[in-house]
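Q: Sequence in, structure out?
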Amino acid sequence: MSSESLPLSGARAVAPARDAAPANGGYNYGFVGRAVAEAIGSFLLLFVGIGIAIFGNTAGGGIGSPLAFGLALAGAMAAFGFISGGHFNPAITLGSAVAGRTAWKFVLPYILAQLVGAVLGVAILWVVITGHDQIGEQARQFLTGTANGYEEHSTNLFPLPSALLMEVVGAALLTAVFLGAASRKAGTGSRRSVAVSGAFAVGVTYAVLLTVLVPVTNGGINPARSTAVAIFSEGWALEQLWLFWVAPLLGAVIAGLIFRSVDMTIDAHSNNAAAALDEDTDDTDTVKPVAAKPAVTKPAKPASDAGSTTPVVDEEARGFFDKPAGGAGTTRPEDGTPGNRA
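A: Exactly. Output:
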């Protein structure tokens, strides 16, 4: 809408409604559409990340699993982020809700969809491995090698407090990057453009954080990822699964609370600035009348046929309200009726 088409009230233009039109290109996606997007993104994330972790180690070479997870997350966010926000992680969903970016009514459907997508992604890998004649019997061992654990099941035998701290910090950082990159204040584009621009930042951050966490917990941060792998792994993975739900969710809540306070502070400053602008505009709306300049008289020259002087009004010193209405004060020489001053 152009500024010329805005209705005016006094000297101020009435701004259009902030949320008058959907920000995602004109489409409003309901629970089903959003949940399907989250399930597909989570499926892609696990299928690619765990698949490379298994088959990459078997064949040798190729990209590492952390980088694969990061690239898959970036691709999923760019493809489906404008529909659901591109979470694909229960921790990010909870952190986004705490920050006020996602409605609470979407939290449970998102998490369930993420779990379904993740389990399906790992289940397909399980079917593929078990169908192999030579390595089929080792399918559970392959999946166990990608499970998250601590103490004797940690890659380098890190104890529970270390694993807990690393998972909390990692999830908090990932959630913070997501909230910052996908913020409505990060740009003025549509939801699709914001999702695409934030996908690179979140994907790279995810890959880097997993690289740091692999030696400690085998790279968690995502409860859906940990749950899907634990289902097809040895029994200890399910026993230690609680930590990989509690720690990421705690870190996400911390990041969400921080961003919520920042958003509230920014909104408060914006409201104060808008109120101050309104007060200044109100002062300029009232037009004060301009006082008329007093007429200045000069002594007239004595007329040749009269002995008295007549005051002459200085035309240049007249104000707007000093001009005679309708040309009053002048007469036509031929008939004596009022005339217009030239």
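The mean pLDDT is 78.
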